[in-house]
Amino acid sequence: MTGDNETILRLMIENTRLQEKSVLLDRLLFEVARKFPDETRFDTALRYIRQAEECGVSVAQENPK
Fold it and tell me: Is the pTM for the entire model greater than 0.70?
């Protein structure tokens, strides 16, 4: 029975971890006030992040430390 209890505990811990990640993802996605037509909030958020990263790389290349 101890093995079953350990398995249940591990699964409960993993479930909690996944729920916390889900909350973080939801927070990120709902920062997208307006999604682009024919895109999900996820796709729009991903596009915003990629655009910001590309801009950041360009700025870093122009202004090396």
Answer: no
